[in-house]
Structure formats: structure tokens, C-alpha cells
Amino acid sequence: MDNTVDAVMPVATPSAPADRGVCNPGAVAVPPAIDSRLEQPGRFHALGRIPHVIWHPIQAAVWILELVAGILSLLVLLSIAATIPGLNLIALGYVLYAEGEVARSGKLRNALPLVPAAARLGSIIAGVCLWLWPIWYLADVARDVQLIAPASAAARWYGVGLIAAATVVAAHLLLAVACDGRIDRFLWPIGNILWLRRHVRQGGFWESAERSIRNFLDDMRLPRLAWLGACGFVGTGLWLLVPSLLFALPSDPAVAWQRWLAVIGGAGLIIVLGWAPLFQAHFAAQGYFRALFELRNVRALFRQAPLRWVLAVSLLYASAILMFLWSGRLKMLIQSHREILDLTVISLATTFPARILLGWVYSRAAARGPAPSTWVWIMRLLLVVLLAGYVYLLFLSSLTAELGRHWFNEHHALLLPIPW
Questions:
Q1: 251: CB partners within 8 A, 6+ apart
Q2: Bigger pLDDT: 143 vs 405
Q3: CA proximity to 5, closest of 359, 278, 300
Q4: pLDDT for res 228
Q5: Helix axes 295-304, 341-366, angle to 10 degrees
Q6: What is the dihedral angle through the alpha carbons of 110, 114, 115, 121, rounded to the nearest 10 degrees?
Q7: What are the start-end ranges of the E strands in 17-176?
């Protein structure tokens, strides 16, 4: 775990397990719940500090380009993962992981973990597509020649040429990936051959390649991201299940009991939606499943920074409004379709900054004392009013949602970034 957490939040003593996580007048106790071996930064975990722009302009430009490429690659990879059942938990897990990094350290520069890994994956995908494009073109030509004159010499030569080109390109791509996968490795095949020759002469080539791949996969932390996503989804879903079902099940508002059922569900949603972002921030910072249900700690955290929490929670749900508007526009203009990549991109791009803000507020709240009770209650009432408007928007979204009315897709800001 990042050592800066001890400077931000005091750690509960092992001698009093019953009081672990109990909020003191000054701050929230943070137990060392996360395995430190999983939190050690690796080569692909985060970018280093930007070089001095004046003294090292080229290195600074390369750093900025890598940052931009990493962010774009990360957004695309997470958006694609969010459309695949099972992998969508990794997308949610990454959001919680980034939120937890900021919550534990209090530093916004930790808001984009694994950007170097995403940049490297993006360069590999771009390089592979760059070299596969001529192979695809040659395969189309060879197929056309085979259809027109299957017994001709041109058909045979095109077939031989296709096999030879595919073999050479495959060898080049493997060498480029083995040579660290940077984009320049895909553009300079001779350099890869010289690199292979040098390493074969030195010995230990396969051991070095295996170690590099293993370190890259370890830095990706996919099992941990999946675990965070699964726990965050299950825990938050349990809080949202009952009020969401009560709110969404009534189908005829003209019936009195159904109308009252929707009102009760909406009131429950206002309460749960107010606490759910705090529960998730607490879970992301602590790293254990039970943190999603520690209401006492979360209430104390709210009392320690009520205005900041209201602003952060409001921004989270305000960022989700764009999804409802875009989804409604699609339903009005386009026939129902299965492509949802545009929706996942919008969901991640709009709600991720708000998640980072929640993590930052968590770190600040944990280091502060409780605010006056009157001020806390004013902020609570303000949050209730704002969330009542958001719940009303959820009701309207059931009439315009692209894929129909489901309680599950109405909480993409908290659960999976998929509107279904």
C-alpha cells in the first residue's frame, strides 16, 4: 500500500478489533486491509514525473504523447471490455481501483494508474493493424484471382506470395512485441532482427522474454481489477436492489397501490443513492468487501466534509445525465440495435472524473474533524433535493431508454458502465 496513507489517515491498532474503522473526532481509522504485494508500483503502473519542459523538451514531449496515447487507449480498451459480459467487471474494477489510489494517497496524479500499460497495448494493437492491412489487401486480391482464374499461374503466385508475406509479417510482429512493443519497433524491422541476434548471442533470450511478459501481466493486475469490480457490483447492487425494484416494477401509475409503491421505491432510492458513492469510495480505499456496508464510518466521513461530499456526489449523478440524453436520442432516431460501444465510451468518459473527485474528497474528509451538526443537516437536505430531481430523471428515462426499462441500466454511474 502507498505509504502516504499513514500520513493521511491513522491506522487502527490490532489490539482493538471491535473498534476497527470507528471514526474518532479527528479522522476515520483506516485498517491495513490491502495486501501490500498487490500495491507495489511496477514499470507499467504509472508514468513518472514529467521531465523539465525547458531543460528536456524532447523528453517532456515524449512523456506528454505517451500520456495522451495511454488515456485514449485506456478509454477504448475499457469501453470495449464494458461491452463484454465478464470483462465488464474489469472496467468497473479499474474505476474503483483509480478511485482508491486517489483516496489512499490524496494525490490526483495517481488518478490514472496503468496508463503506461494501456499505452503499450495501444501501440501493439496499432502496430499489428498497420502490418495486417496489406496482408488483408493481398488476401482479397488473391481470392479474386482464385475466383476468376483458379488454374492460372497468377493464382498460384498470388497464393505463394500471400503465404510468404504472412509468414514474414507474423515473424516481424512477434519480434516487435518481444522488443517491448513500442510503436517504433513496428516501424523498424531491421532493428528487431539486430536485437534478436544480440540477445541470442548473449543467451537467456527465452527466460528474458518470459520474465518481461510475466511482469507486464502482473502490472496489469487483472485478477485484482476483476475482484474489485465483482465486489463493488455485488455490494452496491444489494443496496440498490429493493428500492430500484419497487421503483421500476409498477407498470400502471393509475393504480393507487402501484403509484404508492413507486413513491416508496423513489424515496428509498434517494436515500441509497446519497450513500452509495460514499460506500464505494470507502470500499475502494480500504479494499475489503465489508467496507461496502460500514454505514457508521461512511456517516462519519460525510460529517467531516459535508459540502465537498454534496458537490462530488452531485457531479457524479450530473455526469450520468448525458448518458440518458444520448440514449433517448438514439431511441428516437435509430432503430433498436446491439451496438453499445458509443454508450460505454460516454459513460466512462463522463463519470470517471467524478469518481476521481470522490476519491479525493475521501482523502480530505478522513483528515478533517466533524463539521457543526446544523451545517451537516443543511447539506443533507440539499443533497436530498438534488437526488429527488435525479430520481425523477430516472423515471423519465424509462420512457426513452434505448434498450427499454430495466432497473439495472439506470445506475450505470455506480454499477457497470453499460446501459442495459
A1: 258
A2: 143
A3: 359
A4: 94
A5: 70
A6: 180
A7: none
For residues 359 and 242, the answer to whether their CB atoms sit within 8 Å is no
What are the residue boundaries of the structural domains of the chain, listed by start?
Answer: 42-114+224-411, 116-220
* Contact assessment for residue 408 and residue 245, using Cβ atoms and an 8 Å cutoff: no
Q: Is the pLDDT of residue 265 over 70?
A: yes
pTM above the 0.90 mark?
no
Q: How far apart are the C-alpha atoms of 307 and 365, rounded to whole Å?
A: 10
Dihedrals phi, psi of 227, to nearest 5 degrees: -65, -45
The fraction of the chain above a pLDDT of 90, given in percent, is: 29
**Of 248, 243, 228, whose CA–CA distance to 274 is shortest?**
243
The pLDDT, as a whole number, for residue 251 is 67
Across 389-414, average pLDDT: 68
DSSP three-state, residue 181: coil
HEC sequence for 120-150: HHHHHHHHHHHHHHHHHHHHHHHHHHHHHCC
**Helix, strand, coil: what percent of the chain each, to 5?**
75, 0, 25
Phi, psi of 23 (to 5 degrees): -80, 125
The residue written with cell numbers 516481424 in the block is 172
Provide DSSP, 307-342.
Answer: HHHHHHHHHHHHHHHHHHHHHHHHHHHS---S--HH
The model's pLDDT over 8-60, given as tens digits with 9 standing for 90+, comes to: 343 333 333 333 333 443 444 444 444 433 345 556 666 777 777 788 788 88
- 72 Cβ contact partners less than 8 Å away, ≥ 6 residues apart: 122
AA letter at 21: G
Give the whole-angstrom CA distance, residue 284 versus residue 294: 13
Q: What is the dihedral of CA 73, 76, 82, 85, to 10 degrees?
A: -90
User: Which residues are within 8 A (CB) of 192 and not within 5 positions of it... i.e. 6 or more apart?
Assistant: 172, 175, 176, 178, 179, 185
Query: Cell digits for 341?
Result: 460501444
In sign, the C-alpha dihedral spanning 380, 299, 311, 291 is negative
Q: Which of 158-167, 255-264, 398-407 has the lowest mean pLDDT?
A: 398-407
Contacts of residue 396, defined as CB under 8 A and 6 or more positions apart, other chains included, come to 324
Sign of torsion over alpha carbons 248, 295, 314, 329: negative
Is the alpha carbon torsion for 392, 398, 402, 403 positive or negative?
A: positive
